[in-house]
Design brief:
By secondary structure, the protein is an alpha+beta fold. The protein has helices spanning 21-30, 86-99, 107-114, 130-137, 156-163, 169-174, 246-255, 324-332, 336-344, 373-382, 387-391, 404-420, 433-441, 460-467, 472-477, 482-493, 497-514, and strands at 2-6, 35-37, 45-47, 67-71, 138-141, 144-148, 208-214, 219-224, 237-242, 260-262, 277-283, 287-294, 348-350, 393-400, 424-431, 447-453, 517-518, 521-523, 525-530, 533-534, 551-552. The protein contains 17 helices and 21 strands. Helix 10 (373-382) packs across helix 12 (404-420) and helix 14 (460-467) runs antiparallel to helix 16.
Amino acid sequence: MLVYAIVGDIDSLDPHWMYDGISHEVMWQMYEGLVGYKGGSVTEFEPLLASIVPSKGNGLLSADGLAYTFPIRKGVRFHDGSPLTAEDAKYSLMRLLLMDRAGGGSSLLLEPILGVQTSRDGSGKPIPELFNAADEALRVEGGALVLRLKKPFAPLLSILASYAAIASKPWTVANGGWDGTEKTWTRFNNIPKEGSHLHTHVNGTGPFALDLWNIREKQLVLRRNLNYWRPPPKLTHLIFKTVDEFSTRKLLLQAGDADAAFVERQFLPQLSGLEGVVIDDELPRLGIDGAFIFNFKTQLQGNPYVGSGSLDGDGVPPDFFADVDLRRAFAHAFDYEAFLRDGFRGKGTRARGPIPPAAFGYNYRQAVHSYSPQRAAELFKKAWGGQVWEKGFRLTLTYAQGRADRQLACEILKKGVESVNPKFRVDIRGIQWSTFLSAFIAGKLPLVNARWAMDYPNPHNAVHPFLHSEGFYARAAGYKNPRADLLMEKAVRELDPDKRRALYFDLQQLAYEDLPALFTVDDYFVRARRGWVRDWGYNPILMYGYFYPVYKGEPR
């Protein structure tokens, strides 16, 4: 049995609804896709539920790059004992495309397969013709799933390896899920997470099966799948336990009651010298931490985070951050060096935009906003025609509860902003992760500190969430810039690497000028474990770990 003390609660077990790091992590212990990443590589793939990875060399990827054929592996069974079929694979990808919950990951495949960013029109209604388009793009031919794209899309296998989990169609339908027909699909479009049986129940093909999810106690217990198509995992049970307080995680790890624990770098000295505890450090990141997201159209109704809801010294209006001078003032009020020193013990660098150093297209020469209280004051005086400086404001800055690094970032920004003018008040509040997600997607949080872990190792997935009008953060925060959308659409289809790099350089410059989000640091991932945890590999896309090969042996 392996116990992992994590931070943040699990949002959902539905593989096609969830879109957060913790839920993503536990999902891949129970579900599988057609292909997966090979070991720690983010560029090589191995077959999982497909028996072979399509390529032009083996003839399963067409010469024009538009058609992928995935022969479905024989002899695979779901946790309930039913056999895997190509129809299950088609149904699962159709469900991901057409369920398309707000703030979810469906756009990752909607874009390359159907050529759209969302399944809904401008009024929020499902687009009727999308069912037939998806039904044509995903075809079962013999024992294979054939996937046809609108245009060549180089990162496709990466997306399939990261987000296209396969669920049982008969089991899902039998438990009140979508029946797979055109007649009913719109009823399941953008459903709430509680509206699906898969929110709390699992029937995948993965190495572990669901034993118990105690939502109140924030504990997920998985058991070994003895009928797994590969040799069963060595661990009999895998337990994810949410423990937001570092001191408690430390005690659990020290006593051996937790075999592994999430740890922020600022707390590493407290683990130094603990007998039997091993630190894995300098693990490469494909993502960005400590980013502040500005909301351009905060929803006021029933919102406790905006004070009075007006620019009267006791609140902020819904479009408070639509003023670029205000956003730049906040950028100059943040002490970046203090954050690096106190939050990361100097183990990191200034972020230069949404693209991290480990990804293609990163520009180490990109200009950044400097910490300058004087410059911040000048910009605050310009913002809203001088009203911000004269009247002051009050807002609540939020972060995911239990994340000490994000709390520190909020405290640094609060100190910097409030020191400029005594009329400025920034309240800080940590919110339970699932509540944080739903409130952000609903547009109720005027300013948040968050992170983005890339879904797949392509710079498109680094810039899209922050800069594209349909991106995860941008859409929820009401940010739209047609030039950003156009640059991204060009970049993702450009085959010449030098031209692609130039386009991503332009996007980083646009992020600097427009400042829809404030990027603070680039850092490394770090984790703590007992020495008896063996064969715990690392892949930047699955930072917390894939536990199929893990076992507990003699400490070393």
